[in-house]
Amino acid sequence: MGLVGIPCWLLVLTLPKLSWRWRATRVAVHLLSTSLRIPVKVHGDPPPRGRPCVVVANHESILDSFAFFEVFAEPVVFVGGGDLATHPVTGPFLRGLGATFVRVEGGLDRSSVRSVLGGLAELVRAGNRLVFFPEGGLSPEPGLRRFQLGAFVVAGDAASTVVPVAIVGTRGVLPPGARLPRRGEVEVRVGEQVGPALPGWAAAREIAGQAKQAIVELLAEAPD
User: Fold this and answer.
1) Strand partners, 53
2) Which class in CATH covers the domain with range 39-220?
3) What is the pTM of this model?
């Protein structure tokens, strides 16, 4: 992991173009999955480049973001919590890959929250594919948790579709709190898009329910 991970981290911090940094990380993820015998299988068709959308996925492990590098050949925008931005290792790495960070303090009023979400909607309208983990942070307990509505408000503001994605196997490979991975198989199951979303919190709750149900069904599919 060190032989691949450390050079990848350095490349992401130094390469001048985002496409080069993304490609270097894809190669590193593929090398790691092959050398550690942790194959990543992708089922379904991801939204192509040039088709802006909001992608939502379940969150089982810190490996979930890396699994997306086997899905997307071109950069997507990961949306992470503000605490990740200040991490001395993770923060610079994710910024180098084009991620955006959101921190909403408890005292902010709804207009401030809408301003933050409106900025994310502008990224979608500009042609980007945004990736959210709407459960929020990782949990030591398995199972799909309640979805936060931010991703779906963003989709509604941008009048974009929502693409549900189920990630299977990452918790078994590297559960929360573990330091070293175990061998296993990871699957990324891309579902059919829902929407386009409509603006407003009520519409966000409705499409969040549809996306969550789609992920539940994807998770229940029998493995190949």
Assistant:
1) 129
2) alpha beta
3) 0.90
